[in-house]
Amino acid sequence: MQSQDAAPRTAPASGPAVDVEQAEAALVEHYPRLVRLAYLVLPPGLGRTRRVLTAHALVQRALPRGRASASVIPAQAAGGTDGGREDPGYSLLRVQVLRTALEASRPPKRAAWPRRSQLPPLFPQVWGLKLFPRSGGADELALEQQLSALPGPARAAYVLRGLERLPEDDVRKVLSAAGVTRPTAALREASVVPRQDALLESPEFDPCSLQARPTDLMRRRQHTKAALVAAGAAVVCGVLLALPSGGWGPDGAAAPGYAQNPAARAAVDPAKVTKVPPTAWRTSARTDFSVWPARGGLTGDTALLRRALAVWSRPGGSVQVSATPGTPSGAPAGPPQLLYAGRVDAARVVIFYDGLRIARYAERAGGTDGAALDFARVDSATGAEAEAVVLGRADGNVRYLTAPWVTGAAERDLLKPSAEPVDLGLEDGVTAPLAGPAEGTGSCSTWNVLQLTEGSGTRLLTDLGELTPAHLTVGRPGAADEASKAEALRTWSPFACSLAAVRSQGVRSVNAWEFARQTLPDGSGAAAWVCTRADTWRGDGPRVLAQFQTPGGRYGAVAAKAEGVAACGTKDPHVLAGVLWKSAEGRWYLLAAGSSDTQSIRATGGVTGAADGNLLAVRAAQGAQAGLKGALEDGRTISGLR
Fold first, then answer.
1. Could you tell me if 390 and 439 are in contact, meaning their C-beta atoms sit under 8 angstroms apart?
2. Which residues are CB-neighbours of 100 under 8 A, at least 6 positions away?
């Protein structure tokens, strides 16, 4: 259970212990800022691509292995509240990121092994691409050159003072905690460069907003050919060695690995691809991908279909292959169904369906270099879950192919429930570009979703970075309704930005359920307790967030989270969560709430108290840790979500 306030989260008064979960929450929340901090402190001499990858690697390795003590560092001058103390998890991570970035700035010692931060990062890696931030103007370039002339500690001092808005005394404390032996000297050296705080926030120094260019294509092609020849020789030798004289090989009566069988040949034959008639969906009882007709202007392009099927069957080394978690990326078992083949912006796109997966093949309109192959699991999809597929992404916009029974498509901002949706239009089932939800830039001012209209009403789908958008619903598990109604939109609005936590997780649907409303102590109004549950296509690993919204608050605060649990789902429509909250009178309370069938709640540990019913409010000390137990009306006990 994490301590939350109506204001931004703050740290206790003196060096609190931070556990791994709290540090992980801080890393996810402040990831873009930590990566920018690492990028600015790293020496520009590394090169922009390695500097980007190293910055991401340092932040991703910053989590502690167990409980650790955070330094008592004041909050940013621009955002700190509650006595000027910031999130202890963020304070701990910032020191660790600074320490490793400064290590990477120093050359390895001759008589010792280099530290991990001084070596090229193993992960993350993007093969065949160079990644670098967007180019800035003359002012950004001049600042970059001035910072490159500073030693690592001075560069860190400049960034802490300009990006983190810390006063000089606090900069010294952070530098000392990061291992700098002469923080005062570092500040003095940093003062040589004039302060230009606004430039540090520019896209020039944002390693989370990147441009991509290919590496040396000729050299890469030569290396690929050599690797293929070597791999082929190894396969042939392995087959020969595996066959003992006069006996069976390890695969028994199976044909050699390089052999083709009739089913494999049929799967890559464009003449055998299934094309559903345009009117089949009107007479079928099914509402899934199996009744989608083949659409697009290139459905008759046999050469394009042949390339797409061949790449699906055996993707080459230059093909960028991606798949949602739990989705197999192997060749089709037989001829797939064609859903689309046509031009989308500057690419040729082909979309297939094989009963289990959606497969999307894309190549440049001018050639086949840089082809991409994406997979998404869609088994048992029906209704809203089979109403849209991503055709393409460009410049932060998404274009969809919709089901043949969809009659209208619109763009809606989930953070503005009262605003009218913007019509996107439909042309042969294809929408106009829709501005995608805010990426992980550290701010969330909009969250655009796709609103589809069909015979039975309207539905909301949200892009989570995958081929199929996730279906949004509202209500008690087992009786949830569409999120497109007015009251449902108001329920979702404060919690829309929390959807960023489930990007690229293979999410099928996300439900928001207001399980309790609690009158706050000291006459502070009433707060809402909402549980959001993201269920996946693979059936396991659902992500559950219990969120708390104070009166007038624009955003909800995550009070508790869990993964792989039944809470808030159809199999266990119950939940219990708690939060530390500070009233307008300056008093701290432990607030807890359960679903309506919770008979009683008891708090133990750092806070003790009990209450009949599904609500609890107990006076507590700032930073207190408590455990929660609840009893349901049927006699079963439940624990607080953590």
1. no
2. 38, 58, 61, 62, 117
Helix/strand/coil for 5: coil
Give, in order, the Cα–Cα distances in Å from 321 to each of 104, 312, 326, 610: 32, 9, 14, 54
Rg (C-alpha) for the chain, rounded Å, is 28
Alpha carbon 518 to chain centroid, angstroms? 31
Q: Strands, E, within 477-542: which ranges?
A: 481-482, 507-519, 526-536
Cβ atoms of 67 and 130 closer than 8 Å? no
Backbone angles phi, psi at 138, to 5 degrees: -65, -35
| Dist CA 601 CA 282 (whole Å) | 53
Query: Scanning the structure block, which residue is given the tokens 């999130």?
Result: 87
pLDDT band at 15 (very low <50, low <70, confident <90, very high): low
Strand 626-632 vs strand 598-605: parallel, antiparallel, or unpaired?
antiparallel
**Rounded to whole angstroms, how far apart are CA atoms 170 and 186?**
13
Provide the CA 42 distance to its chain's centre, in angstroms. Answer: 25
Query: Within 10 Å of residue 117's Cβ, how many Cβ atoms?
Result: 20
Strand partners for 636? none
Dihedral sign for Cα atoms in the order 3, 8, 13, 16: positive
Pick from 399, 382, 401: nearest CA to 340:
401
- What are the tens digits of pLDDT across the range 261-287? 777 788 888 999 999 999 999 999 999
- pLDDT tens, residue by residue, 497-524: 999 989 989 999 999 999 999 999 988 8
Whole-number Å distance between alpha carbons of 179 and 567: 44
| Cβ atoms of residues 102 and 63 within 8 Å | no
Are 642 and 560 within 8 A, CB to CB? yes
List for the chain the helix, strand, coil content (%; round to 5): 30, 30, 45
Cβ atoms 204, 135 nearer than 8 A:
yes
The overall average pLDDT reported for the chain is: 84
HSE (CB half, 13 Å, CA atoms) of 597?
13
Mean pLDDT along residues 185-191: 93
Start-to-end Cα distance in the chain: 5
Residues β-bridged to residue 609: 603
For 85, half-sphere exposure in the C-beta direction (CA atoms, 13 angstrom radius) is 18
- Give the integer Cα–Cα distance in Å for 71 and 97: 14
What distance in Å separates the CA atoms of residue 599 and residue 563, rounded to the nearest whole number? 25
